[in-house]
Amino acid sequence: MDIKTASSLHRLRLVSAPEAISFILLMVASVLKRTTEFNAVPALGMIHGILFIIYVLFWADAWNRTKWDLKTAALYFILSVVPFGGFVAERKLKRSADDAVIAARARREDIAQA
Q1: Whole-structure pTM value
Q2: How would you write the pLDDT of the chain (114 residues) with one tens digit per residue?
């Protein structure tokens, strides 16, 4: 994996958790708006909207660089619109990044021993 691909996956991973948190906070604010006088929906809606757009841009960049198949790309997109899905996406991206590091080290050690 080259550095540009790794950094695009890292950016996607970094934005997935805040996007998920903002989605959950927006849902809570929506309920509070209907049940109390508290109305944070406009502010939280804007924050979530910006984070969602950033997520989609980073997702498209990662899809382009990693050459994911349609199923994998669709999974990461669907995880962005499902509550708590951003946390699942972050965990899956971290796991794949760790696997790539292990594979790179194994290749390097194999070359050094040969």
Answers
A1: 0.84
A2: 778 888 889 999 999 999 999 999 999 999 999 999 999 999 999 999 999 999 999 999 999 999 999 999 999 999 999 989 999 999 999 998 888 778 878 887 776 665
Other Cβ atoms within 10 Å of 70 Cβ, number: 8
**Tokens standing for residue 1:** 């994996």
CA distance 44 to 93: 26
- List the one residue out of 55, 72, 45, 60 whose CA is nearest residue 16: 55
Which residues are CB-contacts of 38 (< 8 A; sequence separation ≥ 6)? Answer: 29, 32
8 Å CB contact between 55 and 64 = no
The full DSSP string for 58-69 is HHHHHHHHHT--
User: Contact 98/6 with Cβ under 8 angstroms?
Assistant: no
Residue at token pair 């309920």: 31
